[in-house]
């Protein structure tokens, strides 16, 4: 049974060999003309603004968390909408329950003031 | 595909999840109510959550002897689940009773605390009634995620933060182990249903030497053993129990532990029944290790909360003895013991809740000195709970241990029973030491700050009643526990 996984092992081997090989080969035979701009970390082609190791406001995390929550709602809604006719009343009620639970969360988040930036 | 909805409809059986459903609805309503109340007003939420627990309890009791299965065999509400549901509900109820005054004293009157406890309890119920490894996993996650938050609830306290973070990281790690075990078992048997796995393993000629099944069973067990707090997966217990808010520590050591035992028992007893010899051997070692580590390390503790954390490890070891026995007496013994442990341990923590100062730095052995004279009621209550934790006769701790060790003896594990009793003897030392400090040392403190909060007192009284009732008349409840074994 384990033989079935041999191709996976071979693929992992090739992937590792390719990655290591590329880095080593370019280090060995590539031209090196370093300059300050080339060595700078990539920041959308713009000149650097300060260090990357800064503290971010915790507000960003709340927004990100809420985004994921309501994003998942949308992800669920698409396949449901495609299958809506076949699912019939059952699907409608089930989705209604799901949206109602999310709505409770939404009201909670709203009243708590998590959507206000200041 | 035509009758997709019909198939889905047919397997829906709300009866099978009614208790946890009601609890979740209460949790959501409480969240909604809490945002419309002014900040710091938690009393209405506290009482509403108690009502929620009572309603759920009544629904659970009505389902006794009326097994319901649903959701394509993923959930079953049998007597076994109901017994554990009620244990978890009692744990949650006692915890909530002692919480309100505590939260105000510690300066975190936050209403979300109560819905989180309700969600934890609902997760525990799913674990107890899950007959599919995925349902059990879902319950475990709901339970764990709420508990991570509750453990780190005092966000301004370093200790509480440490508890939350440690619990989260180690819990996530152990969940990974468990999922790997589920994946391996699924790979071999082609199903995640508890009964289906049992069937597939039975049909396999060399199941007990199949490396995938062995690895799957062990990895799955690790996930549960972590939640139970059994050695060698107990490392998180002392720090988390010490750092978490005291009522949450009490709850964690009773409710979720019982739920983990429920799922663990269902999975091992049904799915892995063909591997009984090997599993019992493994549990034998784990039980002895857990009892011994818990008891011996508890001796060295000066902090009473931390000492109770180690004592909780050793009690998980006693309960594991019932798993080793693998017979009806042992399994019903675990059910009984979990109920007993709920009463005695939460009771002991409730006393600590009352005598703690803000910040709880005085919960050391020296801080307990003279409690028995300064506060006679609390002294007597603590003494009863400690006697029960030791396992002395008039209390429930004795009957609980008696049934579990009887199961081990019946299965022929004489040495295990002897080691268990010896361990109980060791535990006398550190439990009695608290008594010595309470009654034979001159008080260092005057305990003038102790307010006899009504709700907490009620919680203590219920716990005392439970401990004494189960100790003097264990018969009726033990009968129920026997009827609960599948």
Question: What's this model, at a glance?
Answer:
By secondary structure, chain A is mostly helical. Chain A has helices spanning 6-29, 36-39, 58-82, 84-112. The longest helix of chain B has 32 residues, at 158-189.
- Structural class by SSE content of chain B: mainly alpha
Distance between the termini of chain A: 59 Å
CATH class of chain A: Mainly Alpha
The termini of chain B sit apart by: 36 Å
H/E series of chain B: HHHEEHHHHHHHHHHHHHHHHH
Number of strands of chain B: 2
Strand order of the largest sheet of chain B: 1-2
In which range does the helix fraction of chain B lie? over 70%
Class by helix and strand content of chain A? mainly alpha
User: Number of DSSP helices of chain B?
Assistant: 20
Number of helices of chain A: 4
Proportion of helical residues of chain A: 55-70%
Low-confidence stretches of chain B: none
Average predicted confidence as pLDDT of chain B: 92
Q: Report the β-strand fraction of chain B as a percent range.
A: under 5%
Any overview of this molecule?
The complex is a heterodimer of chains A (about 120) and B (about 475). Chain A has about 120 residues and is mostly helical. Chain A has a single domain, classed as Methane Monooxygenase Hydroxylase, Chain G, domain 1 (Up-down Bundle). Chain A contains four helices and no strands. Chain A is flat, with a radius of gyration of 25 Å. With about 475 residues, chain B is an all-alpha fold. Chain B has one domain (about 5-485). Chain B is built from 20 helices and two strands. Chain B has a two-stranded antiparallel sheet. In chain B, helix 2 (about 20-35) runs antiparallel to helix 5, helix 13 runs antiparallel to helix 14 and helix 13 (about 305-325) packs antiparallel against helix 18. The two termini of chain B are about 35 Å apart. The interface of A and B includes residues 83, 86, 89, 90 and 107 of A.
């Amino acid at each position: 049974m384990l033989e079935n996984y041999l191709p996976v092992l071979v693929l992992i081997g090739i992937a590792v060999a390719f990655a290591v090989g590329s880095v080593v080969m370019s280090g060995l035979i590539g031209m090196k003309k370093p300059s300050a701009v080339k060595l700078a970390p990539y920041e959308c082609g713009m000149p650097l603004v300060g260090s990357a190791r800064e503290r971010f406001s915790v507000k960003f995390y709340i927004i990100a968390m809420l985004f994921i929550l309501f994003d998942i709602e949308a992800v669920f809604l698409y396949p449901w909408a495609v299958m809506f006719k076949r699912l019939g009343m059952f699907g409608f009620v089930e989705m209604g329950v799901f949206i109602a639970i999310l709505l409770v969360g939404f009201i909670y988040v709203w009243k708590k003031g998590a959507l206000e930036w200041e | 595909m035509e009758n997709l909805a019909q198939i889905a409809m047919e397997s829906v059986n709300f009866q099978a999840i009614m208790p946890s459903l009601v609890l979740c609805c209460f949790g959501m309503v409480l969240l909604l109510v809490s945002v419309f109340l002014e900040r710091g007003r938690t009393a209405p939420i506290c009482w509403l959550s108690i009502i929620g627990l009572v309603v759920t309890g009544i629904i659970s009791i009505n389902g006794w002897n009326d097994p319901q299965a649903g959701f394509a065999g993923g959930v079953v509400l049998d007597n076994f689940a109901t017994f554990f549901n009620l244990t978890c509900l009692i744990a949650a109820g006692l915890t909530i009773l002692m919480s309100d005054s505590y939260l105000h004293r510690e300066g975190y009157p936050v209403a979300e605390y109560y819905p989180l406890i309700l969600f934890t309890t609902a997760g525990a119920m799913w674990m107890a009634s899950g007959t599919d490894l995925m349902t059990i996993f879902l319950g475990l996650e709901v339970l764990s995620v709420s508990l991570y938050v509750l453990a780190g609830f005092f966000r301004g306290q370093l200790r509480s933060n440490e508890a939350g973070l440690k619990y989260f990281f180690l819990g996530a790690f152990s969940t990974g182990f468990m999922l790997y075990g589920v994946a391996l078992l699924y790979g071999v048997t082609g199903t995640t249903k508890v009964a289906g796995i049992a069937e597939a393993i039975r049909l396999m000629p060399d199941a007990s030497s199949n490396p995938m099944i062995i690895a799957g069973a062990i990895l799955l067990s690790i996930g549960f053993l972590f939640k139970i707090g059994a050695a060698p997966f107990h490392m998180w217990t002392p720090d988390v129990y010490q750092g978490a808010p005291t009522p949450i520590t009490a709850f964690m050591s009773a409710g979720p532990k019982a739920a983990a035992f429920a799922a663990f028992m269902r999975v091992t007893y049904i799915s892995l029944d063909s591997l009984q010899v090997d599993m019992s051997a493994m549990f034998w070692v784990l039980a002895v290790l857990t009892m011994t580590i818990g008891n011996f390390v508890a001796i060295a503790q000066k902090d009473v909360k931390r000492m109770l954390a180690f004592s909780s490890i050793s009690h998980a070891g006693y309960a594991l003895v019932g798993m080793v026995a693998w017979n009806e007496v042992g399994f019903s013994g675990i059910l009984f013991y979990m109920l007993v442990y709920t009463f005695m341990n939460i009771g002991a923590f409730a006393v600590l809740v009352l005598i703690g100062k803000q910040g709880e730095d005085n919960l050391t052995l020296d801080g307990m000195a003279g409690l028995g004279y300064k506060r006679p009621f609390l002294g007597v209550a603590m003494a009863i709970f400690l006697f029960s934790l030791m396992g002395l006769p008039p209390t429930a701790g004795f009957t609980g241990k008696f049934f579990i060790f009887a199961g081990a003896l019946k299965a022929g594990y004489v040495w295990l029973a002897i080691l268990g009793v010896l361990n109980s003897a060791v535990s006398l030392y550190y439990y009695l030491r608290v008594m010595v400090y309470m009654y034979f040392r001159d008080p260092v403190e005057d305990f003038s700050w102790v307010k006899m909060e009504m709700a907490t007192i009620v919680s203590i009284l219920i716990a005392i009643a439970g401990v004494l009732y189960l100790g003097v008349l264990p018969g009726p409840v033990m009968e129920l526990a026997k009827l609960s074994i599948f």
